[in-house]
């Protein structure tokens, strides 16, 4: 099995839970309450800044120029997405978005940055991959249904669209090339990082749905 086949088989059940989540279902049927979407947009704009840092680190550590270029381009893409969250969606959501990084966002970005700084290059790729791949799969899935809500339809279009899908294909190819080189122990570590990030992806939607706050 290719590395990406192994990775996806590890998160099949997490992915199924993401598609079932009321936040995700609420995007397509339009029932998602605005405050939950607002929570998501606010936290995602904060997330994207650190995600861009993690991608830039992957790029800096990549042994080959093609991977350096891919990750650095995607870091710039994540910063553009941050601006789109703030300007494009934030403006429509009324009041200025908050700046407080909430627990799940902090936990997820801390995980990404810890692995990107302290793990191997391959582990760093394992950690960032769910951010690409789960959004591409969720985006493509939701695109089939779109949404009666104009704002949600726009969010779906951004992640379902072909430009994002091709960015994700490039990183999947690069991951499989890496899979052919790494030791079994390294492959196991990549899988662990990948599963952890995937769990955080589910938690990120759930935090917005629950209106997560710091308890004290
Ligand atoms: C939490 C999260 N994961 C992944 C993406 C897409 O890269 C995003 N915008 N937000």
Automatic annotation (TrEMBL):
The gene is tenA. Catalyzes an amino-pyrimidine hydrolysis reaction at the C5' of the pyrimidine moiety of thiamine compounds, a reaction that is part of a thiamine salvage pathway. Its EC number is 3.5.99.2. Keywords: Hydrolase, Thiamine biosynthesis. SUPFAM superfamilies: Heme oxygenase-like. InterPro entries: Haem_Oase-like_multi-hlx (IPR016084), Thiaminase-2/PQQC (IPR004305), Thiaminase_II (IPR027574), Thiamine_Salvage_TenA (IPR050967). The keyword Glycosyltransferase does not apply. One of its GO terms (cellular component) is cytosol. This is Aminopyrimidine aminohydrolase. It catalyses: thiamine + H2O = 5-(2-hydroxyethyl)-4-methylthiazole + 4-amino-5-hydroxymethyl-2-methylpyrimidine + H(+); 4-amino-5-aminomethyl-2-methylpyrimidine + H2O = 4-amino-5-hydroxymethyl-2-methylpyrimidine + NH4(+). It is an enzyme of class 3 (hydrolase). Belongs to the TenA family. GO terms for molecular function: thiaminase activity. It comes from the Bacteria. It comes from Streptacidiphilus pinicola. GO terms for biological process: thiamine biosynthetic process; thiamine diphosphate biosynthetic process. Pfam families: TENA_THI-4. Pathway: Cofactor biosynthesis; thiamine diphosphate biosynthesis. Residues 8-210 form the Thiaminase-2/PQQC domain.
């Amino acid at each position: 099995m290719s590395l990406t086949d192994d990775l996806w088989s590890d998160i099949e059940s997490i992915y199924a839970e993401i598609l079932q989540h009321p936040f995700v279902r609420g995007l397509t049927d339009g029932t998602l309450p605005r405050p939950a979407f607002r929570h998501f947009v606010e936290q995602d704009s904060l997330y994207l800044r650190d995600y861009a840092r993690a991608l830039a680190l992957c790029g800096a550590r990549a042994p080959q120029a093609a991977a350096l270029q891919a990750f650095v381009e995607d870091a710039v893409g994540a910063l553009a997405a941050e601006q789109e969250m703030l300007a494009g969606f934030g403006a429509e959501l009324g009041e200025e978005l908050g700046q407080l990084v909430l627990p799940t966002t902090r936990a997820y970005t801390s995980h990404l940055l810890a692995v990107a700084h302290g793990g191997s290059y391959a582990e760093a790729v394992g950690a960032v991959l769910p951010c690409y791949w789960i959004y591409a799969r969720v985006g493509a899935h939701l695109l089939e249904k779109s949404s009666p809500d104009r704002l949600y339809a726009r969010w779906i279009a951004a992640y379902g669209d072909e430009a994002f899908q091709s960015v994700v294909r490039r990183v999947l190819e690069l991951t499989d090339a890496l899979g052919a080189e790494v030791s079994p122990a390294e492959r196991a570590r990549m899988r662990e990082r990948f599963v952890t990030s995937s769990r955080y992806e589910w938690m990120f939607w759930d935090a917005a749905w629950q209106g997560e706050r710091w308890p004290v």
